[in-house]
């Protein structure tokens, strides 16, 4: 009898894989992606397509020909970056700007640090911020293209947060929050439907892909900080619900702040990380020169992750 | 039934795959030749007390303890000692074995072979301990630590709770389940004996919820026998519940400090199979020659799975033969469970007191995938029942940072395999941590030796 395998224990595996986890994240993004295509039409499909295809292709090319490392390419992981990048861009972004973003996300922010699992910054957000600084005109053009469902002509207008930056809380008085929760035309694809994003996030929680602590601590901090300011001066500062439902808070807190690689490993560290993001985003919204600050907040807190990992550890058995 | 309990930190939920749990225990016939290893237990190997050519009877002592932590070994059959010399064990290492040509099954004097239940427990604590020692009883939960040593805590330490481990949390294994179903009364008497030895502390029998029939059988036996201070706790199904430290956390809500012994928190943990061996030893004067073993796996049909009552010294190949041979598609043979068992390199190796299974695993179930980059998902840390951070220990090990490994408690690893099992990137975490643990233990031992030498040197200096 030929015994083929002799190796140390354990002899079985949970059968979990990186590809399956990243595939779950892609599935979780589907509701929001579907909503964006329905409402922004062919133009949105182009942005999504260019971003997704170029991210995956770039990762494959770099892994295969530059890094020459087996296992450096993970298709579903690159697809997550591609989808997230697209959801962070205005629908009118020219294809070559999207492509530039993909090159920055995969080439600079991810692969130059060593690829999967090695990057310090969330690639999609790093690319969005890179584009925002490099092409401010394209990145703040909130013209809405005709979608498959709402077929009005292209309209141009400021986002809700843009209006607030111009004229304070009074500028958005009377916003219908229930409508904002489900359908918020104006802004990037990832801002259309908070409900669709939350649906995807619930899927991730059910599949135990992510834990809720980072996301909840971002939400709680945004609500708390804006609540304090709103109570002080409701005419100047927007209320907590407005701040949770608009802009990139939900997309960022559910899908980008929870990125394994660039968030703390421990629950304690995650909560501090979330508080940091929530606080910074509110400071930028209220006092910064940009109307929205979710991307900056996440990038800044990405830098704190190594320190948080050093400080926060799991409770060990039988040790104080 | 009271609330289901479990341990506080980490743990995983592998499919339990207890396919063989409904197969009654069958007695294996004796093979023509048996090889009895001198390393049947943790600690020093035993020293043979017979010579080549001697006639031996079943249950006769053939080797004596080789140190304080060691145990007697008895002949598993009657016959002639053919040879005494090195033979390869499971892992392929040489160990002294006594070869016995089997000529029958004539038992030595004074051993009660009847099935009558003896419930009258001897009064004298030392007499009980002596019997347990003379019968070569060792812990059958995996570590095979000599039982008489564990039941005799150092002066000053008090046992508050005897925990009888019926968790059997390893997937596939069903031998503990079967003995709880078939010999519950003997196990309970065994528990009562140990309880008495420990000075009458309370006793909790912990059984995982996935064995409802065993729970029922044990509860009925307990009600029938009516010993005071013994209870049954139902444990949630979670691996590694049967780990000593985890079981103490589940049952007592206490945690043993790093490097400490269970008795430091008042706990003594013994397996159900050990309780049975204690019963046989004390009440029947039967030495530990037999144990139950499961032949199972993911690549054999259920009608070829068995629970066998085996004797020590039976070649694994003989048992495999009896069960219909090694299946074609078995890629790996494991002795023990799939999480902590040892891969068998040598099927000619023989059973020892602690043998618990012959597990056949298919390539699909057991073949490791190529490792990818760590994506820092933290699943290993969530799974670790000791609260360690395997991803970090892996990196520290790769970096050669022994200080860092010690600070992050690599030495606390119980090698349960939860980290490697959970890792979606298939990183061989436990492989690294085992090596790291060895390095850290080496440093700790060297430090202790240096401190001792320094203290002695100081003493000598003082005398001058």
Q: In short, what is this structure?
A:
The complex is a heterodimer of chains A (320) and B (464). Chain A has 320 residues and is an all-alpha fold.
Fold and architecture overview:
The complex is a heterodimer of chains A (320) and B (464). With 320 residues, chain A is mainly alpha-helical. Chain A has helices at residues 18-67, 75-87, 95-110, 123-134, 136-139, 160-167, 177-182, 194-206, 213-232, 240-245, 249-256, 267-287, 294-311. In chain A, helix 8 packs parallel to helix 11 and helix 9 (213-232) runs antiparallel to helix 11 (249-256). The longest helix of chain A has 50 residues, at 18-67. Chain A starts with 17 loop residues before the first helix and ends in a 9-residue tail after the last helix. By secondary structure, chain B is of the alpha/beta class. Chain B has helices at 125-134, 147-150, 175-182, 184-197, 212-225, 244-252, 272-284, 316-322, 363-366, 379-383, 390-399, 402-407, 418-422, 429-463; strands spanning 25-27, 33-37, 47-48, 55-56, 61-64, 73-74, 78-88, 94-104, 161-166, 202-208, 230-235, 267-271, 290-297, 306-311, 330-335, 342-343, 357-362. In chain B, the strands form 4 sheets. In chain B, strands 1-14-13-17-15-16 form a 6-stranded mixed sheet, with helices on both faces. In chain B, strands 2-8-7-4 form a 4-stranded antiparallel sheet, with no helix packed on it. In chain B, strand 7 and strand 8 (94-104) form a beta hairpin. In chain B, helix 11 (390-399) crosses helix 14. Chain B is globular. Classes of the chains: A mainly alpha (320), B alpha/beta (464). Chains A and B meet through helix 1 of A and strand 15, strand 16, helix 9, helix 13 and helix 14 of B.
